[in-house]
Automatic annotation (TrEMBL):
GO terms for biological process: proteolysis. Residues 82-157 form the Inhibitor I9 domain. It comes from Arabidopsis suecica. The lineage of its organism: Eukaryota, Viridiplantae, Streptophyta, Embryophyta, Tracheophyta. Residues 698-793 form the Subtilisin-like protease fibronectin type-III domain. This is Peptidase S8/S53 domain superfamily.
Length: 804
């Protein structure tokens, strides 16, 4: 009997990794190499290799598992910052509003001097409230003041982080004479406020060549600070402010000019990327490996004006405080912005209270006609990870583009494999490939070779810097396609392949005495053969707090976008690929165009137009799928209405409109608002909560989501005609599996006297007899020209509180 040769220990680890990979994928789970927090970090794209994506440095840690490391307790300031929300302003004069805030503080602190010392911000433009440094006992005492509606702690928030417009059908060339971009003169006259990490004003994306005068309604300004002055603004960048007092008051060591620019200047890079994506000017002849010569980069509304409100600072990858963000909202409303793009948010795992983060100031902005666009968050692909869930916020999911970066791996027998990489160095001629997971003898086996490593199973990660340090000349990293990549040194090949390719390569290492491979620089391919997916990092619905309100609302490209980056000592290249935060400004730029095209539309009407005309497929007709573990077709909890279709959105036919009364309905139903809170929020003492018999299911959102169906439910919606005056619409129902859905009336008729019509949808459990998961369908109203589609999401709950 032939004796089986012993397997090398490093190869044995590779084999174990493969086995683990198969088991994990067969069970639909991510490998153990995936970090507990699955989201891409700010600025990191699916292919960009950012420092934040790298695993923690364990080189200084002792291997002795018996050592217990005491966690460092978090810093708690003696006088933390608390935020007090008082509702709508009672005075038009901001000075009188501020004085009323000082009087409230004085009632607890005893003197105006102490009140002034305590005050961090007075919110006196867009709404009424203040932030103050107080002892917790003093804050609790102030909470009982009759004018205080809400008390908030100053929570920390985080940043949620070219080809895009061609992909969406809004072509990049400035000479195009068709479509929404041309009809709105590329967004000329719109003012887009960006609440983010600042801006690098010297970038070509903020050039103001050919711009007209600054709009007359603009009241903002450009403030001076570290390496920034009013001369850094122009007709493109018309406003730039910064807010840091709220964050600094709660930090053990204050941010200073040695670690950040105490000015609107961007040190993090996130704000510059967001600003250029939403409204960047045309930049010609963009040079980046893999792009064709003469490529053009631009934002969604390239002739719109930008106002930057810097609230996020280069601390722990990008940190913002609620107090600072609220002040930015307060002043942006006053300054005269038309749209707000806010790529920040908190965690989905928070107290179930709508009165937090950006929801309240966003409501005041929306009530004044300013759409607020924010991300669904980077908590994907976890169920119920979506953030920014309030119905007045336009919440954006992220998809990939129809673009890929394949790198060719060639064997000596000319068999080829494709991996993903951004390697731009010279071709690496035929070189030994070894598979190892053993870190103990890398210096002996790695030199001059390409290392293949399985980033799954029980093995520690093999990072590019480790391979390079030990003399290796390349790394083939076998992992789930949806896992985050790590930073790769310049001109060092880091090639990512899936388990199928990795296993085949591994087989060759076992059947060949010395396997040699050739590595070629990457090439860019794009078009219909590259699948579009909902990004792994994009947070998913439903909202755990308010599952009857569908979130996210809409999806847009947010991965591997080309945007300008700030120059650094380490990398002076002007352009880089950015991350999932970019989906938000893509939508904000489109909203700016829609607002110019339809100046009388409310923020809710704009949202409805986007949701009801969105695509369930990519632009080539292929169904969108999801990235992140289990491969499946995307549904409403992944992308809301679907992938944005900006040309259809300009002529939706019908819209599901809402106003402050609808939002009050939501607050009373979901946040337990009282009549007193409602009247303070609106500034109208006659405003009250709707009757107790009104249901949250009847909120006029462009979707129907019923999370707890027991027998049957009838919901009501109304639509407003924004198309031809005389129109007749008929319903087309895609019924969720096993349920029964009936719509009445069978026709919606519109004329000069009747431009708004209500209808009812009766939903029953149909054939279902047990608690189910969510099933998805849709309702479309069609007049033969317009198809106005809303998602339907249904789940039975015959037994309450039974975990499914």
């Amino acid at each position: 009997m032939k004796k089986t040769p012993k397997m090398d220990s490093s190869l044995r680890l590779c084999f174990v990794a493969i086995a683990f990979g198969f088991v994990f994928i067969m069970n639909g789970k991510l490998s153990s190499g995936t970090t507990p927090h699955e989201a891409d970090p700010p600025q990191a794209s699916n292919l960009a290799f950012s420092p934040e994506a790298a695993p923690p440095d364990t080189s200084a840690m002792d291997d002795d598992s018996d050592i217990n490391y005491e966690p460092v307790p978090p810093f708690v300031p003696e006088f933390p910052v608390f935020i007090f929300y008082l509702g709508e302003r009672k005075h038009d004069d901001p000075n009188l509003v501020t004085q009323s805030h000082l009087e409230i503080l004085k009632s607890v602190l005893g003197s105006e001097e102490e009140a002034n010392k305590s005050m961090v911000y007075s919110y006196h433009h867009g709404f009424s409230g203040f932030a103050a440094k107080l002892k917790p006992a003093e804050a609790e005492k102030l909470k009982k003041h009759p004018e205080v509606i809400i008390l908030l702690e100053n929570r920390k928030l985080g940043l949620q982080t070219t080809r895009t417009w061609d992909y969406l059908g809004q072509f990049s060339t400035p000479t195009s004479s068709e479509g929404l971009l041309h009809e709105t003169n590329m967004g000329s006259g719109a003012i887009i406020g960006v609440i983010d990490s600042g801006i690098w004003s010297e970038s070509g994306a903020f050039d103001d060549d050919g711009y007209g005068p600054i709009p007359k309604q603009w009241k903002g300004q450009c403030v001076s600070g570290d390496q920034f002055s009013p001369v850094d603004c122009n007709k493109k960048l018309i406003g730039a402010k910064y807010y840091i007092d709220g964050l600094n008051a709660d930090l053990e060591t204050s941010i200073n000019s040695t670690t950040e620019y105490l000015s609107p200047r961007d040190r993090n890079g996130h704000g510059t990327q967001v600003s250029s994506t939403v409204a960047g000017s045309f930049v010609s002849n963009v040079t980046l490996p893999g792009l064709s010569s003469g490529s053009i980069m631009r934002g969604g509304a390239p002739k719109a004006h930008i106002a930057m409100y810097k609230t996020c600072w280069d601390v722990e990858g990008g940190m913002c405080s609620v107090a600072d963000v609220w002040k930015a909202f307060d002043e942006a409303i006053h300054d005269g912005v038309d749209i707000l793009s806010v790529s920040i948010g908190g965690s989905a795992l928070k107290s179930l209270d709508v009165e937090i983060d950006i929801a309240i100031p966003a409501l005041h902005a929306v009530n004044k006609g300013i759409p607020v666009v924010s991300p669904a968050g980077n908590g994907g692909s976890r169920y119920s990870s979506v953030i920014n869930i309030s119905p007045w916020i336009l919440t954006v999911a992220a998809t990939t583009l129809d673009r890929s970066f394949p790198t060719l791996i060639t064997l000596e027998n000319n068999k080829t494999f494709l991996g993903q990489s951004l390697y731009t160095g010279p071709e690496i001629s035929f070189t030994d490939l070894i598979c190892t997971a053993d870190h103990s003898n890398l210096d002996q086996i790695t030199k001059g070779k390409v290392i293949m490593h399985f980033s799954m199973g029980p093995t520690p990660p093999m990072t590019p810097d480790i391979v390079q340090k030990n003399g290796g000349i390349g790394l083939i990293d076998v992992r789930s396609p949806s896992d985050s990549r790590v930073e790769c040194p310049a001109n060092f090949p880091c090639i990512y392949v899936d388990l199928e390719v990795g296993s085949e390569l591994y087989t060759y290492t076992q059947t060949t005495s010395s396997l040699k491979i050739k590595i070629s620089p990457y090439k860019t391919i794009f078009g219909e053969r590259v699948a579009s997916k909902v990004a792994k990092s994009s947070a998913r619905g439903p909202s755990s707090f308010s599952p009857a309100i569908l979130k996210p609302d809409i999806a847009a490209p947010g991965v591997t976008l080309l945007t300008p980056r700030i120059p650094t000592d380490e990398d002076t290249s002007e352009f880089a690929y950015s991350g999932t935060s970019m989906a938000t400004p893509v939508i904000a730029g489109i909203v700016a165009l829609l607002k110019i095209s339809h100046p009388n539309w409310s923020p809710a009407a704009i949202k409805s137009a986007l949701v009801t005309t969105a695509m369930k497929t990519d632009p080539y007709g292929e169904r969108l799928t999801v990235d992140g573990g289990n491969y499946k077709e995307a549904d409403a909890f992944d992308y809301g209405g679907g992938l944005v279709n900006l040309e259809k959105a300009t002529d939706p036919g019908l819209v599901y409109d809402m106003d402050i009364n609808d939002y009050i309905h939501y607050l009373c139903s979901q946040a337990l608002y009282t009549d007193k809170k409602v009247s303070a929020l609106t500034g109208n003492i006659t405003s009250k909560c709707p009757s107790s018999c009104s249901s949250i299911l009847d909120l006029n959102v462009p979707s129907i989501t019923i999370p707890d169906l027991k027998t049957n439910v009838t919901v009501t919606r109304s639509v407003t005609n924004v198309g031809p005056v005389k129109s007749v619409y008929k319903p087309v129902i895609e019924t969720p599996l096993g349920f029964k859905v009936v719509v009445s009336p069978k026709k919606l008729k519109f004329n000069k006297r009747r431009n708004k019509v209500a209808f009812k949808v009766r939903v029953s459990t149909g054939s279902h007899r047990v608690n189910t998961a969510f099933y998805f369908g849709s309702l479309t109203w069609s007049d033969g020209l317009h198809n106005v589609t809303i998602p339907i999401s249904l789940r039975t709950r015959f037994i309450d509180n039974l975990f499914l």
